[in-house]
Amino acid sequence: MSSEEFEKLHEIYKSLYDELKLIPERVTKCHGEERKRLVRSFDERQGEAEEVLQGMEDELRTAPPSYRNAMSTKLRLYRRDIGKLQRDMKSFAPGFGSASLTAQGDHQGIYASQNQQSTHLQSQRALLLQGTEYLNNATQSIERSQRIAVETEQIGTDIIEELGGQREQLDRTRDRLVNTGENLSRSRKVLRAMSRRLMTNKLLLAIIILMELAILGAVIYLKFFRK
Hints:
This is Vesicle transport through interaction with t-SNAREs 1B. The protein has a domain of 158 residues: t-snare proteins (Methane Monooxygenase Hydroxylase, Chain G, domain 1, Up-down Bundle). The chain has six helices and no strands. α1 runs antiparallel to α3, α1 packs parallel to α4 and α3 packs antiparallel against α4. The relative contact order is 0.06.
């Protein structure tokens, strides 16, 4: 037993209450057999609502403490609403209660109709419980899908941020490569200039050596061979 079962009974009660609250006003607009039929219908629905409320009371005794106050408040409100409908029904149909019970006791054929209606109600109740279960399952499935969507969105955001960081790293690497290429170009120009200067220096050195040799040869010639 759990608060979930209490909610299922709550849905059944609301369905019964929606039927009950329409009957007192309809009783004022009809007469004869139609009024009797509405009185019997009210009596039947009221009995079913009382059974549902009793089931809710049973659930209340075993419910977790955290849910008990809210469930107890709902139950008191529901019993108050049923009491108000009973008073309205008595004011609109003074014979309500004893007359309906007498009519049910006098006419045995009514019991077969009541049994059929009870069976139909139980079938509707089972369908309602099944529909409620399907709705709960669908809600849980939607919640799981929402969680997966949020997680997927977070993963996508993280990937985008990571790709943005990698793009910045690639941009910085490209800038460094561009700077390195420019530095290499300047270095090649400097090396070519140094190479030209070295060749020029070598050429000047060779000319100076040749001139010195020529001067030395002239000095030797003038000193030793020319008389």
